[in-house]
């Protein structure tokens, strides 16, 4: 084991990385709070500033993927879709698995990615607070209560000044065997073809989003993601420097090709998921997706951004720690160690937010209800 590989396994290193992410995130959240005074003066300038502040935070996760763990993503697509992915507005349909975010970070970490997020995340430090300033649409996952909120939130994005990706998880919840069984019972009752690798997509959120985003985004990009060796990446694994290899199939559908009628658009989505199921079956059998292969290069900006924050935050931390131990005061040393312990607990809790193995209970009963 080399020295760098050894460092990647040390908890103190993980703690320092977590310290940089958490403290920089709190600083960014505070700056975002201060920018609220810009909203009534110049809304578009407020949006541009907050996009870049959020990007400075999220790109630290990209740094961990690309530079720390060396994780690679192979994109399977045609050339037109690949160029579209690199710089336009679009809506992205993806699986809702525990590892989705790691694959999507590679390509859709633009300064203004949006998502329909469950309302509970609004109260999560760093993640929810940053999303609030980015005008992320938070919902309770009860369509009767969410419909007006979603429509109003999406319409507000019509004049967004940045390239925007809107991420859609049409299955609504993470895949489990129990949820899949219940979902397929619903599919059978509705006369829909059964899916082997997916849950039945929820059409109301999709059709509403597509209708509201017409004129704002140019296309829907369907993403099917797999990690080689059936690995399930986690933030903890990334921190330990584990390298993952992702295969991502991306297909582009111009928005004008999607029916405007709600029922026809819902049928279009069901057909899309049948195609996604066939793609997954092909991958399981052949270990490859159709289309040209392309590996996005690592981005120097993500590394430089992290090094900036590490320099700004770790230098005073080391100076303070050295001063505490040099003082010889037992009280100061114990207080410092207590602070380190609290920070360790906080980092573990933050990691725990991403380590979701069973998923939520949402879907176990909801699939039994008709949309």
Throw out a few tags for this protein.
371 residues, alpha/beta, eight-stranded mixed β-sheet, 8 strands, globular, 1-acylglycerol-3-phosphate O-acyltransferase activity, Acyltransf_C
Helix and strand arrangement:
Blueprint (H helix, E strand, L loop, with lengths): L2 H6 L2 H24 L8 H26 L3 E6 L1 H7 L4 E4 L6 H8 L5 E6 L8 H7 L3 E3 L3 H14 L8 E4 L8 H13 L13 H11 L5 E9 L7 H5 L5 E10 L7 H25 L5 E3 L5 H28 L2 H25 L17
Parallel strand pairs: 1-7, 2-5, 2-6, 3-4, 3-5
Antiparallel strand pairs: 1-8, 6-7
Describe this structure in words.
Strand 3, helix 6 and strand 4 form a beta-alpha-beta unit. The chain has 13 helices and 8 strands. The longest helix is centred in the C-terminal third of the chain and has 28 residues. The chain is globular and about 75 Å long. The chain is α/β, with parallel strands linked by helices. Strands 4-3-5-2-6-7-1-8 form an 8-stranded mixed beta sheet, sandwiched between helices. The protein is 54% helix and 12% strand. About 1% of the residues have low confidence.
Largest sheet: 8 strands, mixed
| C-alpha geometry | globular
SS-derived structural category: alpha/beta
Portion in strands:
5-15%
Order of helices and strands: HHHEHEHEHEHEHHEHEHEHH
Count of distinct strands = 8
- How far apart the termini lie comes to 54 Å
- Poorly predicted segments: 96-100
Helical residue percent band: 40-55%
Mean pLDDT: 83
- Based on CA atoms alone, the radius of gyration comes out at 22 Å
Major sheet: arrangement of strands: 4-3-5-2-6-7-1-8
Number of helices: 13
């Amino acid at each position: 084991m080399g020295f760098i590989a050894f460092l990647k396994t040390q908890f103190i290193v993980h703690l320092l990385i977590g310290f940089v992410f958490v403290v920089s995130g709190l600083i960014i959240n505070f700056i975002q709070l201060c920018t609220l005074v810009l909203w009534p003066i110049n809304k578009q300038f407020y949006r541009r500033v907050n996009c870049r502040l959020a990007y400075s935070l999220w790109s630290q996760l990209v740094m961990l993927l690309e530079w720390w763990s060396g994780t690679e993503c192979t994109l399977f697509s045609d050339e037109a879709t690949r160029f579209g992915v690199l710089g336009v507005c679009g809506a992205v349909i993806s699986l809702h698995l525990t590892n989705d975010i790691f694959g999507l970070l590679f390509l859709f970490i633009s300064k203004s990615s949006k998502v329909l997020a469950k309302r509970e995340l609004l109260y999560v430090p760093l993640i929810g607070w940053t999303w609030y300033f980015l005008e992320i649409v938070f919902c309770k996952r009860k369509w009767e209560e969410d419909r007006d909120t979603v429509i109003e939130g999406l319409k507000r994005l019509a004049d967004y000044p940045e390239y925007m990706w809107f991420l859609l998880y049409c299955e609504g919840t993470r895949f489990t065997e129990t949820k899949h069984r219940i979902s397929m019972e619903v599919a059978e009752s509705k006369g829909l073809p059964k899916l082997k690798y997916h849950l039945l997509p929820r059409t109301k959120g999709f059709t509403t989003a597509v209708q509201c985003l017409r004129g704002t985004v140019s296309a829907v990009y369907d993403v099917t993601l797999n990690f080689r060796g059936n690995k399930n990446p986690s933030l903890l694994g990334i921190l330990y420097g584990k390298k993952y290899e992702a295969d991502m199939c991306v297909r582009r559908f111009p928005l004008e090709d999607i029916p405007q009628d709600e029922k026809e658009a819902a049928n279009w989505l069901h057909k899309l998921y049948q195609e996604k199921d066939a793609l997954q079956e092909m991958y399981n059998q052949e270990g490859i997706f159709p289309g040209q292969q392309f590996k996005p290069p690592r981005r120097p900006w993500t590394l430089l951004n992290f090094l900036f924050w590490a320099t700004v935050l770790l230098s005073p931390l080391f100076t303070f720690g050295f001063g505490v131990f040099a003082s010889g005061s037992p009280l100061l040393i114990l207080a410092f160690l207590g602070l380190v312990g609290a920070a360790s607990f906080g980092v573990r809790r933050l990691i725990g937010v991403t380590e979701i193995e069973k998923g939520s209970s949402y879907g176990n009963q909801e699939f039994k209800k008709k949309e």
